[in-house]
Amino acid sequence: MTDHAEHVPEISADQQVGRIFGWRRGFDVTWLLAIGLRSGIVHTLAAHPGLTAAELADRLALHPPYTAAWCRTAHGFAVLDLDRPDGPSGGAPGYRLAPHLDTILTDPSDPRYLAGYVLLGAEVATRDFEATTDAMRTGAVLPFQGRGDGFARLVAEATRGLQTMTAHGILPKLPGVAEVLDAGGTVLEVGCGTGNLLIAMAGRFPGARLVGVDIDSDSLAAAAEKVAAAGYADRVSVHAGRVADAVPDGVDVVVLVEVLHEIAPALRPGVMAEAAAALRPGGWLVIVDETYPSTPEQAREPEYRFPLMTGFEELLWGNVLPTREEQEELLRGAGLTGPVDRRLVGEGFTVLTTAKPA
What's the predicted TM-score (pTM) here? Predict the structure, then answer.
């Protein structure tokens, strides 16, 4: 060890073994949840707590021994709690979801909703990591765009909680925003995806006009379908291509939710300049994204664990997460020179808000 080596706490070989087993358990529990969601067990127990494994198998036409194994394992890892524990008579136990998991795993309207994130890990990350093994030698990229409707919808579900938080928790608290939007103001969403946030904002601000821009045709088709189904087509529109073409008259708020890091670094200054130009004086820019560590030392800090995971999970997508310095340089370069409010939410999401100088 040199004098400049990183100082790390003492750890034994057995402790390292325990860490690896812990990481491996996390992989298995992710799949345990995904199988429970796919098979209908999670939603059925959310609606009918107390069912036995046999009752679940009967309702869902599942293989009884496998269903029993799923329930016993889920109980062991505190995904399920016993509703009717074994008594002296030896009757089969009933199961219920552990506290709050009914909401977290089955209620898309809740800001803590994570079912989409679980399924994204099981259905997309697993395949992408396999492909990344070869891509480590070639640098191959399989970008977000063009992966099909199913992929676009799954990514949208994975970020749905953040979209709910933005519509109901962030925008209404910005000075003057609720009043402007309720009076007919306009919100632009850059990277609107399949339209979940547009619909959430339309519901929260019934007087507002909403405009979404994206470059993925599968996502835009899904967004247009959702907007029409929600009955918002008279004041919510989606567009392919550039911001300037979608909102020639300017907007009061621009939002980007888990989008900035998905824009190629070389294109970010131009996109941010167009977004800033679209803002009317005094309008707000809201970015919900992730911040990559600026130094090797920061990589060990808890607030960067989630961004590090995202950065590695999305290597194959070609995504590069920006550091704090890069985020702020983009804002300044776009002419947004006012104070920037920065705060951390959830497991490692950064919320940036700044107003365009009046």
Answer: 0.90
Phi/psi region, residue 97 (left: phi>0; alpha: psi -120 to 50; beta: rest), is beta
Domain-located, residue 123: no
Residue 120 lies in a domain: no
* Claim to verify: residue 227 and residue 97 sit in the same structural domain: no
Burial 243-272 (b: 16+ CB within 10 A, else e): beebbeeebbbbbbbbbbbbbeeeebeebb
Question: What is the rounded distance in angstroms from the CA atom of residue 352 to the CA atom of residue 344?
Answer: 9
In sequence order, what are the beta bridge partners of 237?
A: 211
What gap in Å lies between CA 145 and CA 219, rounded to an integer?
9
Q: Is 78 exposed, middle or buried (0-12, 13-18, 19+ CB in 10 A)?
A: exposed
Q: For 165-191, give the DSSP string.
A: HIIIIIGGGSTTHHHHHHTT-EEEEET
d(CA 108, CA 78): 22
Cα separation, 87 vs 317, in Å, equals 52
> If we measure between CA atoms, which residue out of 180, 186, 230 comes closest to residue 212?
186
Q: What is the pLDDT of residues 228-253, one digit of tens each?
A: 999 999 999 999 988 988 888 899 99
